[in-house]
User: Which sequence fits this backbone?
C-alpha cells in the first residue's frame, strides 16, 4: 500500500487520570507552562501529513478543553465513553464521515510525541496496515507468582514497551472495534490488542523514550525538571522608553487606558511601559530593538496599539523554543499615580504575553520633581526581561517572521 496523505488522528482525552493526584484531569494540567493536551495535539495539528485531529473528551471538561487547545486546528470534540476502548470507538465513528485511509490513535497524556514518530507511524501503517511504536526494555523483568515469588525471568531482548500513536488502516481498526463492542469485549488495554484479537498482524516501529505517558505525580515532577534543563540558556535584557505629554484625555500605560489631563505625543499609542518591555525582550534575544522591527517611519504603525508589539516579542521567544521567566516594568512619573492600577497593569501584561501574573512585576517611582518627569512633561519607563532558551536552538531565520 502506498503512503497515503489521508491520515487522521484520534486523540483520546476523556480519562480522569486519578493516579496523577490532585489538580484535575492530568491532560489539562500544565507542564513546562503549557497544557499537556496542547502539547500532545499540537504535534498532530501541525504535521503536514495529518488532515484531521479528532479529540475525544469527557463532556464535563468542555470548557477546560476549549481553553487548553485554543489556537490549534481540530475537529469538533466528541464525547468519550466509560473506558478508553469505548472512547476510541467514539473517535473512530466521528471520523468515519471523513473516510481516512490511515488513523493514528494517541493518548493525550503523552505530550512529547515528535514529528518523527508521527511520520514513522504513518509510514508503518501505510506499509503494514497495523503498527505500534515501541522502545526496548532496559531493566530486567520478573514474573511473579500469586505469593509474590519470582516465577520467571523473560528474555528482555524480546521485550518492548508499547507507546502511542498506534497506527492502522482506518477501515480495519474501525471494524475490529465495532466487533469487540458487539461481543461485549471491553477488557483490551490498547488498540494493538484489539487488532491482534481481530486477527491482524501488528508490526512495530521505532518509538521514542521521550514519548512517555504522564501517569503519576512523580512523572510531572521529573518532566518539569527535564524541560527546565533543556532551557539552560538564561538571558536578561533591559529596555527604556520615554514619551512627552501632548493634547489628550488619557494615556496608555502597560496596556491599560488611564484617564489623565494630557495624552502622549507618539507615533503609536505611546505606551512607554510596553515599549520598554518589548525592548527588554528583544535585547535578551539579541534581536534588535523595537524601532528596527516597528520603524516610526512606517505609516502602518501610526496610532497602533502596543499590545501587538509585545505579542510579537513574546512570539519571537516562542519561535526559538524559549520561555519567559520574568517581566518587570518600572514607571517614572509624578502623575498619573500608578499604585492603584498596579495589579490591573500586571494582569494586562500577563494576558498579552501569555505568562502567569506571578511572573510580572509593575513598579513606580517619581524623580522627586527633578527633570522632565518631575516637571510633568512626560513619562519614562525602564524594563527588564528574563528568558530561557535552549542551548541547542537552531539558527534563527529572520525571514520566517512577518507582521
Assistant:
Amino acid at each position: 500500500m502506498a503512503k497515503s496523505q489521508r491520515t487522521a488522528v484520534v486523540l483520546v482525552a476523556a480519562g480522569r487520570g486519578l493516579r496523577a493526584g490532585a489538580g484535575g484531569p492530568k491532560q489539562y494540567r500544565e507542564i513546562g507552562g503549557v497544557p499537556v493536551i496542547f502539547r500532545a495535539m499540537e504535534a498532530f495539528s501541525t504535521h503536514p501529513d495529518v488532515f484531521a485531529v479528532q479529540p475525544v473528551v469527557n463532556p464535563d471538561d468542555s470548557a477546560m478543553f476549549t481553553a487548553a487547545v485554543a489556537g490549534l486546528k481540530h475537529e469538533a470534540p466528541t464525547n468519550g465513553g466509560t473506558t478508553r476502548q469505548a472512547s476510541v470507538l467514539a473517535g473512530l465513528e466521528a471520523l468515519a464521515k471523513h473516510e481516512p485511509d490511515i488513523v493514528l490513535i494517541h493518548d493525550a497524556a503523552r505530550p512529547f510525541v515528535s514529528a518523527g514518530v508521527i511520520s514513522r507511524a504513518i509510514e508503518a501503517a501505510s506499509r503494514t496496515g497495523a503498527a505500534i511504536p515501541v522502545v526496548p526494555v532496559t531493566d530486567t523483568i520478573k514474573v511473579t507468582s500469586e505469593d509474590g515469588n519470582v516465577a520467571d525471568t523473560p528474555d528482555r531482548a524480546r521485550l518492548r514497551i508499547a507507546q502511542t500513536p498506534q497506527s492502522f488502516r482506518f477501515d480495519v481498526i474501525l471494524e475490529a472495534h465495532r466487533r469487540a463492542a458487539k461481543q461485549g469485549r471491553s477488557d483490551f488495554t490498547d488498540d494493538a490488542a484489539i487488532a491482534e484479537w481481530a486477527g491482524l498482524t501488528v508490526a512495530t516501529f521505532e518509538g521514542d523514550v521521550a514519548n512517555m505517558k504522564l501517569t503519576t505525580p512523580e512523572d510531572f515532577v521529573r518532566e518539569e525538571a527535564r524541560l527546565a534543563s533543556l532551557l539552560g540558556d538564561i538571558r536578561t535584557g533591559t529596555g527604556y522608553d520615554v514619551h512627552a505629554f501632548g493634547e489628550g484625555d488619557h494615556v496608555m500605560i502597560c496596556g491599560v487606558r488611564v484617564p489623565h489631563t494630557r495624552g502622549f505625543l507618539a507615533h503609536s499609542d505611546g505606551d512607554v511601559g510596553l515599549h520598554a518591555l518589548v525592548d527588554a525582550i528583544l535585547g535578551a534575544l539579541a534581536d534588535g530593538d523595537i524601532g528596527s522591527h516597528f520603524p516610526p517611519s512606517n505609516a502602518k504603525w501610526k496610532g497602533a496599539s502596543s499590545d501587538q508589539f509585545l505579542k510579537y516579542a513574546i512570539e519571537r521567544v516562542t519561535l526559538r523554543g524559549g520561555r519567559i521567566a520574568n517581566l518587570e516594568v518600572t514607571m517614572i512619573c509624578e502623575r498619573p499615580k500608578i499604585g492603584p492600577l498596579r495589579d490591573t497593569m500586571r494582569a494586562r501584561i500577563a494576558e498579552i504575553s501569555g505568562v502567569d501574573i506571578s511572573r510580572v512585576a509593575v513598579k513606580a517611582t517619581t524623580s522627586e520633581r527633578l527633570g522632565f518627569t518631575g516637571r510633568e512633561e512626560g513619562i519614562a519607563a525602564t524594563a527588564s526581561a528574563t528568558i530561557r532558551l535552549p542551548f541547542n536552538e537552531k539558527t534563527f531565520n529572520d525571514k520566517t517572521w512577518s507582521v
